[in-house]
Amino acid sequence: MDDIYMLTDMAILARIGGNLKSARLKQNITQQSLSEAANVSLSTVKKIEKGEIRSFDSLLRMLRTLGKLDMLQQLVEEEQLSPNEYYNMMQASKTNQRKRAVGKLNNAKQEESEW
Predict the structure, then answer these.
(1) Is 81 exposed, middle or buried (0-12, 13-18, 19+ CB in 10 A)?
(2) 10 Å Cβ neighbour count for 18?
(3) Most buried residue, 62, 83, 87, 98, by most Cβ within 10 Å?
(4) For residue 111, what is the enclosing H or E element?
(5) Which residues are within 8 A (CB) of 77 and not within 5 positions of it... i.e. 6 or more apart?
(6) Residue 64: what pLDDT?
């Protein structure tokens, strides 16, 4: 595969559309039946397959219907911290805790309360 950063946005969209079309054809699904199952218009299916992706919602619906939603897995996973990152985060939170102020006000109250 080419380096994705070397591709233009239009080229990336065209590849996504082509891959969706290929997946649809492999499953022997017509554009009309895909549009009905994904609850998007037929023209939307045709546009997305040409690489004219204007609605992320429609793209998600098509991916879900074609069983290709796993292509977005990396985008929805929470980032895992390494043990070092977790340790550093915990140490930073300990050092930033508020400390109780010790001042003249506390001492004055103690002196007044003595019998």
Answers:
(1) exposed
(2) 13
(3) 62
(4) helix 104-112
(5) none
(6) 96
Full DSSP string of 25-53: HHTT--HHHHHHHHT--HHHHHHHHTT--
Sign of CA dihedral 14, 16, 77, 37: positive
Tokens of 54: 């204007």
| Cβ partners under 8 Å of residue 48, min gap 6 | 17, 20, 58, 59, 62
48, 24 Cβ separation under 8 angstroms: no
Provide the greatest CA pair distance for the chain: 93
Question: DSSP characters for 55-96?
Answer: -HHHHHHHHHHHT-GGGGHHHHSPPPPPHHHHHHHHHHHHHT
Q: How far apart are CA 21 and CA 50, in angstroms?
A: 9
Task: State pLDDT tens for residues 53-95.
Answer: 999 999 999 999 999 999 999 888 887 878 888 888 888 877 6
